[in-house]
């Protein structure tokens, strides 16, 4: 377990960079470092991607390295599989969460299984970048939280950054990984800023390590990606109500860092899992089960979930009712059976 | 026309005469010259005047491969009856396309077979026991794909085609002389991945040859229910690549057309779609009952156009096939089948712990826990067996 420095605190000599800039820099550094790295997808070349994450890369590295493909996600991922078979390290962009679905057969039947199918002879070092989640006023098919589909597929790593530093470090690590990685980019955090210094990029974070974003004694909020800043905000607001909340940013759903999560819950004795994805069949159910199985005797209350409703993603004008917000998180914290402990200070510290 | 603002009127004729309509930008075809439509009739060599030009050494080699391929199909089918194979999708009747696909490739090239194409893999040099590993059930791919440059047999239809395109594209980017030949059936041409692979290949001018074996049926569904295209080879035109329609039972024609397609790919002239018109003489697999969807009369018509018999007729006509030669070829096929039987009759040694070894480069803590659980179960099982053995001895 490690405790991260607050991302909001600026370091001297650094200017704020956005997550989008950090992702672009990670791609650029990977392309520059390893000639096997190829970036491919819809509009990633001349345009620089619809979110400008690949801005300038085609110009710098040429269209053979940064390729505008035909508009066909199964074809993009399927050809990337073939490129990886030949020793390249493709980084595929799926333009939006819901646009990745045509590639699911390639993903589930080949990408996830090729190493295992060939007893390790044919690993596929592929990174699949997927902008995901809501909160940007996007219309239908542009706001899905599709992580549950990916984590249910053995053979894939599933990673998602919540800070500018992690966006750089985790993407570098994903591209360097010899396994396929689903790299979920919280699109509403693309323009979030951090003290990340493009002149001295952050060390590459290993995949599979959660991080405690905020230490606290009363309860643990377990979260990832777009919900991390919401949980941080909720933790600040909770102070006024007498709760000192710990926030764990998972960073990687697969592999799952049981150690960091359970160490936190054993300290606080209470936990709420927070994510945008629907609750039924969502990652929160798995996390709650894992925590309960491993930390039962430390728990003062059932592990609760604050998730998106089990509905198709709402239209932009209604999405605020769907997304887990500070109030809904605090309502859940309030339901963690404090009364039976006789005070708000509860928890088995 | 009177302006409501000024009350002034403008002569209509003057208005019209002041500007010429701009013509739209000139349209031009994307591919110039456009690829030719495929031949209306499947291309044939054997039994036609073209046969005279065919090289005897090549024909004899093809014949040897055909006979061996036929024997392989018979042996694999027999192994299903003996319970040694879980299932076998036979290519009896399709041997010409299968062996030609393997023979036209050079060592550095890649073959992308579908689940039915174990014969092509074997003809490329893969140990048949390894080729049948998937169907025996000991592991999903029984071979190292890099050893003979044969991609894992692909069960999901047409999904291996984009892999072939990506691999060929990657090789070309690296400046390597590599052609990929990808195999698919008539049913597979209805899949989206077929379309996407052909489109990517043409856009990238990737060195790929797509070989469709139109064997008449996708399990039970005949071609008429898969497509309204005049032929599957016609589909190539829409992608801007040449399409060739070939008699898939004519090994000489298959070899010639595939060789040309491979040559073109190697020379940087892009992909080709080849449709081999053939017939699946056996049911889809041993688990299928073909009498439910096709008549014996239809099967008999195709039996008269058998790929092995076609070649025998040509070689006999040339005076190249005496009793001695036939016996030598038969003997080779028998020895091949005996080796396959022998390999298949040996029980594979399996380690259940392999289930956890290759999921990721490095095991996750979750898989380590699950592996430990299985290990404990296996140990308990072994202990119980040992105890029961000791009990019986007493």
From TrEMBL, chain A:
Cofactor: thiamine diphosphate
Matching CDD domains: TPP_PYR_E1-PDHc-beta_like (cd07036)
The Transketolase-like pyrimidine-binding domain, residue ranges: 17-192
SMART domains linked: Transket_pyr
GO molecular function list: branched-chain 2-oxo acid dehydrogenase activity; magnesium ion binding
One family name in Pfam for this protein: Transket_pyr
Known EC number: 1.2.4.4
Keywords: Oxidoreductase, Pyruvate
EC class (word): oxidoreductase
GO annotation terms (biological process): branched-chain amino acid catabolic process; response to nutrient
UniProt superkingdom: Bacteria
Residues passing through the membrane, by range: none
Matches recorded under PANTHER family: 2-OXOISOVALERATE DEHYDROGENASE SUBUNIT BETA, MITOCHONDRIAL, 2-OXOISOVALERATE DEHYDROGENASE SUBUNIT BETA-RELATED
Name listed for the protein in its UniProt record: 3-methyl-2-oxobutanoate dehydrogenase (2-methylpropanoyl-transferring)
Species lineage: Bacteria, Bacillati, Actinomycetota, Actinomycetes, Kitasatosporales
UniProtKB/TrEMBL annotation, chain B:
Cofactor(s) recorded in Swiss-Prot or TrEMBL: thiamine diphosphate
The keyword Oxidoreductase is annotated on this UniProt entry: yes
Biased composition (Low complexity): 385-394
Gene3D superfamilies xrefs: 3.40.50.970
Keywords, in A-Z order: Oxidoreductase, Pyruvate, Thiamine pyrophosphate
GO biological process, one term: branched-chain amino acid catabolic process
Domain Dehydrogenase E1 component, first and last residues per copy: 74-334
Keyword Translocase applies: no
InterPro entries: Alpha-ketoacid_DH_E1_comp, DH_E1, PdhA/BkdA, THDP-binding
Name this polypeptide is given: Pyruvate dehydrogenase E1 component alpha subunit
Source organism (scientific name): Streptomyces indicus
